[in-house]
Specification:
mainly alpha; 2 domains; two-stranded antiparallel sheet
Length: 610
């Protein structure tokens, strides 16, 4: 025992050895690992470097950055709670006030942390949706190795458990470090236990419920039907989760009325369940009866979600694996109903063969590659959640929650839909992935590229974005006119909204694609990684500006019919000016000496940008 203690306190620094002594030791032996440990490491690597996250294998740094950023919101909110629980001293002679926030305000503070854990964990699981089950690459590669199916299955389950619990701890471990000092709870042990248990249960329930739902879909529908609705289900889940987080200020305002009236809405919203767990640990015997009920529902719901996920996952796993081995029958259906629309499109927007080729290349690539569609789903889910949170107004009347449509929110919806539609398509088209097939464009436009052909090729992508974003924005306007309140004006307001929708989609596309000089999906990865903070700063800057500009333009056009004509003229002038600037950008690109595959441009450009 004494030798063991001495080894603990003994210095672990190895003595310096000469090169000859180190060579005499022989080659360094790596620690032996079992098949399961290698498989777990492989599946964890696939979670970070898969086709959806990155095609160049550089997603690990981005995912680690996102994982570190996941714990910051709770930490920052806990820091901002300090002045609420510690009011400032006005003068040196005044006594420091010792007035704590009201009871329901403290409850809302606890409510935020369980809500954030629920949403963050759900988004992480939805993002890794496809990697929880085997794909064709796993079947073809791992199936040919001398590894049992049972061992592969257990390794994937272990990797999923490591991912879920690792992200769960990562998203919640920073907040308790500051929360205790910021709030000064009267009973610190009960406060910490209640906080940790509630946020961990909230995140675990969110992950288990989504995994159970996916397993049930695969088990009931099968692989072929599941793939048809998978992206739509992911989009709905992203929308619901982000809406829950964005509506937190509204929900926190109605929390006292919902809980005091024992409203059924609180029983159907999972974040309220885990709020009950937190308050039950914190208050003990003096807790309100509604919290006891919510805590019981939370325990039952978490156990049921974990049980369903445990029961359905093996069935869905092996069924998907079998269907991947057997394959599916490809069915080609001729869409004759779209023939007139396609004929009209070829005669108007994509008249030249170059535009027509790129236009159909975009459409077929989006249908073929799921990676690009998931980008659109994520952008669409976030945009739709912001739109719903802006348009929907929740109020409590007589102990009941009522939803109303905001006229101001409908006015601001045009800029929101146009911004997120163009931003999502811009990100999708600019993501690298099909560089192996980009040789066809070099073969067609020559080297150096011909200006006229290159311009037509690039304008096809802009046409695709303008038509898609305009159709989506106008469809949103039509939908809101069905549910719009009576306070909105009639025909003149509709004309103003249509002008603003078309103009915003056109000008946002011109701005977003001003420096794009490659065909969609064929561009290379940037040599320098964009800073995530600056990327978010651009969104936080241009998104409010776009929404404000669209709302102000709509009200200005409604004031006078002459303003409508003036708005159309300004949009046309701005579009023609941006079109002229874009021609200069493409001309400079065509005049550059084209590099060979894999050649560095530093000796030719000296690291400078044109």
């Amino acid at each position: 025992m004494s030798e063991f203690i001495q080894r603990i306190f003994q210095r672990s620094d190895s003595p310096a050895m000469s090169l000859n002594t180190q060579a005499a030791l022989g080659p360094v032996r790596q620690p032996e690992r079992s098949q399961v440990s290698h498989l777990v490491h492989h599946f964890l690597e696939r979670f970070f470097n898969h086709e959806t996250a990155s095609v160049d294998g550089d997603a690990k740094a981005r995912m680690v950055l996102i994982a570190c950023a996941a714990g910051l919101p709770g930490f920052v909110v806990a820091m901002y709670l300090w002045p609420i629980y510690h009011p400032m001293i006005i003068s040196p002679h005044s006594k420091p006030p010792h007035v704590l926030p009201s009871y329901w305000l403290q409850v809302n503070h606890h409510f935020f942390f369980v809500t954030y854990s629920f949403v963050a964990m759900g988004l992480a699981v939805v993002y890794e949706w496809d990697m929880f089950f085997p794909d064709l690459l796993d079947v073809l590669v791992l199936g040919a190795l001398p590894i049992s199916r049972r061992r592969i299955f257990l390794a994937r389950v272990a990797a999923i458990a490591v991912l879920v619990f690792g992200f769960l701890i990562d998203a919640n471990f920073l907040a308790p470090m500051t929360l205790v000092a910021a709030t000064d709870p009267p009973n610190m042990p009960r406060f910490l236990v209640g906080h940790c248990v509630s946020v961990l249960m909230a995140g675990l329930f969110s992950a288990a419920a989504i995994l159970a739902f996916e397993g049930m879909l695969i088990t009931i529908l099968g692989e072929r039907l599941f793939q048809r609705i998978s992206l739509a289900v992911q989009g709905v889940m992203v929308t619901v989760l982000v809406i829950v987080l964005l509506l937190f200020p509204v929900l926190s305002g109605v929390t006292p009325a919902l809980l005091q009236s024992h409203s059924a809405i609180a029983m159907w919203l999972p974040p309220y369940w885990f709020l009950g767990v937190d308050q039950w640990f914190l208050e003990g015997a003096s807790v309100l009866p509604v919290y006891v009920t919510l805590a019981k529902v939370a325990c039952v719901g978490t156990l049921m979600a974990a049980g369903i996920a445990t029961a359905t996952y093996p069935i869905a796993y092996f069924r998907r694996e079998r269907q991947l081995v057997e394959g599916s029958v490809a069915r080609s259906r001729a869409r004759s109903g779209l023939a007139p629309l396609r004929w009209l499109l070829h005669r108007t927007a994509v008249r030249s063969p170059e535009r027509r080729a790129v236009y159909h290349f975009i459409q077929q690539t989006l249908q073929r590659v799921p990676r690009y569609r998931i980008y659109l789903v994520l952008y669409g889910g976030v945009g739709l959640s912001i739109l719903v949170a802006t348009v929907l107004r929740l109020t409590v009347r007589n102990g009941r929650l009522h939803a109303e449509i905001s006229a101001d929110g409908i006015r601001a919806s045009i800029g929101m839909v146009a911004f997120w539609a163009v931003a999502g398509l811009r990100t999708t088209f600019g993501s690298p992935g099909n560089r192996q097939g980009s040789w066809i464009w070099r073969f067609l436009h020559g080297s150096p590229p011909q200006f006229a052909f290159t311009l037509e090729k690039l304008l096809a992508a802009r046409v695709w974005v303008i038509m898609s974003s305009t159709a989506l924005t106008i469809s949103t306007i039509a939908l809101f006119h069905i549910i719009a309140p009576a306070e909105l004006p009639g025909f003149q307001s509709t004309i103003a909204q249509l002008i603003v929708a078309a103009g915003m989609c056109l000008l946002l596309t011109d701005f977003g694609f001003l420096h794009v000089v490659t065909a969609p999906f064929t561009g290379g990865a940037p040599q320098t990684e964009d800073n995530l903070a600056f990327t978010l700063l651009r969104f936080f800057t241009f998104f409010p500006l776009t929404v404000w500009l669209s709302e102000a333009a709509e009200q200005w056009i409604e004031a006078n019919w002459l303003h409508a004509g003036a708005a159309v003229m300004m949009i046309a002038v701005a579009h023609l000016w941006l079109r002229w600037k874009y021609r200069d950008v493409v001309r400079i690109h065509c005049d550059q000496i084209e590099l060979e595959e894999g050649e560095d441009d530093f000796p030719m450009k000296l690291g400078l940008r044109y």
